[in-house]
Amino acid sequence: MNVKPNITILNALIRITIGLTIVAWGTAKLVKWPWRESYLLAILLGAMKVGEGIVRYCPATDLYKKSTTNGQTASRDSMEGLDQDEVLPYNPT
C-alpha cells in the first residue's frame, strides 16, 4: 500500500482544527453525561480527523480520486464504442 499525502497543508490545518474542536466538545459532554455513547463516537471521529491532518492522507479523498481517474465516469462508459465525432440522433421521447 503506497500512502502519499493527498491533501494540502491548508486542508490539513483545517482538519486538525476542526478535529480538536470536536474532540474537546465530545470530551466535555462525555464528562457531564458518561452514559451516552454518542459523545464517544464524536470523539473518535474528531480524533480521526486530527490523524488525517497530521499524516496529510485522507482515504476518502484517495478513493474519490482513484474512482474518477480510473477510466471514464459511469455515463461515459455507457457510450463506449461511439466515436467522439459521431452525432447521436435526437430522440424526444
Task: Summarize, please.
The chain is mostly helical.
Write a concise keyword list for the protein shown above.
single chain; 61% helix; mainly alpha; 4 helices; 93 residues
Walkthrough of the structure:
The chain is mostly helical and 93 residues long. It contains four helices and no strands. The longest helix has 24 residues, at 9-32. The relative contact order is 0.15.
Characterize the overall form. elongated
> What Rg do the Cα atoms give?
22 Å
Distance between the ends: 48 Å
For the biggest sheet, the summary is: none
Range of strand content: under 5%
Low-confidence segments, given as residue ranges, are none
Can you give the mean pLDDT? 84
Number of H- or I-type helical stretches: 4
Q: Assign a percent range to the helix content.
A: 55-70%
Number of DSSP-assigned strands:
0
How is this fold's topology laid out?
Blueprint: H1 9-32, H2 38-55, H3 59-69, H4 74-77
Helix pairs in contact: 1-2
